[in-house]
Amino acid sequence: MSEFLTHIKTELAAIDADGMTKRERMISGPQGTHVSMAGARMLNLCANNYLGLANHPNLTAAAHRALDTDGYGMASVRFICGTQDLHRKLETRLAAYLGQDDSILFAACFDANGGLFEPLLGTEDAVISDSLNHASIIDGIRLCKARRFRYANSDMTDLEAQLQAARAGGARFIMIATDGVFSMDGFLAKLPEIRALADAYGALLMVDDCHATGFMGPQGRGTPAHFGIKADVITGTLGKALGGALGGYIAGPQAVVDLLRQRARPYLFSNALPPMIVAAGLAALDLVESADDLRAQLFANAAYWRAGLTDTGFDVLPGEHPIIPVMLGEAKVAQAMAQDLGKRGVHVAGFFFPVVPKGRARIRTQINAALTRDDLDFGLDAFRAAGRAVGVI
Ligand SMILES: *Cc1c(COP(=O)(O)O)cnc(C)c1O
Q1: What is the SS3 assignment for 109-127?
Q2: Which residues surround ligand 1 with Cβ inside 6 Å?
Q3: Domain Aminotransferase class I/classII large spans what residues (predicted)?
Q4: How many CA atoms lie within 13 A of 164 on its CB side?
């Protein structure tokens, strides 16, 4: 044991020596445009709370009600005695919202992606994955027996080469897997081109739309709707725009969902979502389906923030998504900048290797619909002052 712990401590020391230790800042009270940290009121620019629903009164009221009518916990997986009418209602609702036959709930999208590939694809098949896909897609693919191919992020020439390689290898079925939005850059996947290539090579298309469902595209139906294409399978989360608590899902053709209910391991061997989460998920869908005002506010806020940062002289990645990364180069600079912003009442997180490539460290800002013009101006003033203090503008 002591030898083992010495080994673990050496590992921790190495992480720390590289300046890679992640330190969790403690919030007291709810998630929102501002959070309370050690008594200080901080402008919060790093939550996935795109529509500001994380503490919305409709969601908290729905959760409270479900706690009274349906209890606290299910104490069961779905197929034994963990399925309430609420679960099926949310699954049907999500499927209709996403334009798919049916959907299946998981404890998180990490589990949805972890459980998706293995039941659907076997050794005769191939899966082709974007190099910047979320860790949960990578892990899900590792757990399945299909041949694995990878293409450089959004590189359509490379995707076609991988499709040809998979076909030449005799693959029975091919599935292309991509994030709808790449979370470190805020770039959208090139879904129209990917769909066209998938069709040309007879491949299936899976899109993980965690950073889009609820706010991208008409009625917030996500990146496939934004581009007007159909994805064969969509995975997503209730943990971001749709309330921000937890829960994941897979939506797709009836037979696919039916087979996942029989075979997906994180579904079969893990607890049912608690009723309050499911009820709040339904309340979130009620809101987002008619939240054109919130979506308009979100994109107006994002455009204002992006323009403000650019005018100030920061190197901002181009795009339209409310993920707006400020490029700072070296990890040390990103850390110094995040720290300085903290002192000025703005909470942001620096991202550096291995999360992003070396020399491409950044502060990833995320804008939401609940931020006011005053909040954004306060944030811009702080970024200007911090940028000068750290010497990047
Ligand atoms: C956040 C995220 C996940 C994980 O979702 P959880 O429901 O929090 O497990 C999966 N994929 C992508 C692309 C994400 O951004």
Answers
A1: HHHHHHHHHHHHCCCCCEE
A2: 108-110, 113, 134, 136, 179, 183, 208, 210-211, 237, 239, 248
A3: 42-382
A4: 6
Instruction: Enter the pTM of the model.
Output: 0.97
* Mean of the per-residue pLDDT values of the chain: 97
What is the pLDDT at residue 353? 87
181-223 pLDDT, tens digit per residue, is 999 999 999 999 999 999 999 999 999 999 999 999 999 999 9
* Residue type for position 197: L
> Is it the case that residue 20 has pLDDT exceeding 90?
no
Å from CA of 235 to ligand 1 middle = 9
pLDDT of 22 > 90? The answer is no
Contact 134, 179 (CB under 8 A): yes
Mean pLDDT within 83-90: 98
Q: What would be the CATH architecture of the domain defined by 291-329+337-393?
A: Alpha-Beta Complex (3.90)
Contacts of 342 by beta carbon, 8 Å cutoff, 6+ apart: 42, 348
Q: Is the pLDDT of residue 132 over 80?
A: yes
Stated as kind and residue range, the H or E segment containing 385 is helix 373-390
Q: Count other C-beta atoms under 10 Å from residue 277's C-beta.
A: 23
Q: Report whether 186 contacts 325 (CB < 8 A).
A: yes
Residue 390 has pLDDT above 90, yes or no: yes
Please give the share of the chain, as a percent, with pLDDT higher than 70. 100
Pick from 48, 103, 110, 178 the residue to mutate for probing ligand 1's pocket: most ligand atoms within 8 Å of its CB. Answer: 110
Closest ligand 1 atom number to CA of residue 179: 13
CATH number of 57-288: 3.40.640.10
Instruction: Return d(Cα 205, Cα 233) in angstroms, integer.
Output: 7
Burial label, 150 (beta-carbon count in 10 A; 0-12, 13-18, 19+): middle
Q: Residue ranges of the domains in the chain? A: 57-288, 291-329+337-393
Active site residues: 183, 211, 240
Residue numbering of the annotated binding site: 109-110, 134, 183, 237-240, 270-271, 364
pLDDT beyond 80 at 229: yes
Which amino acid appears at position 316 of this protein?
V
Ligand 1 probe mutation, 48, 182, 234, 240, most atoms within 8 A of CB:
240
Which atom of ligand 1 lies at the shortest distance from residue 137's CA?
Answer: 11
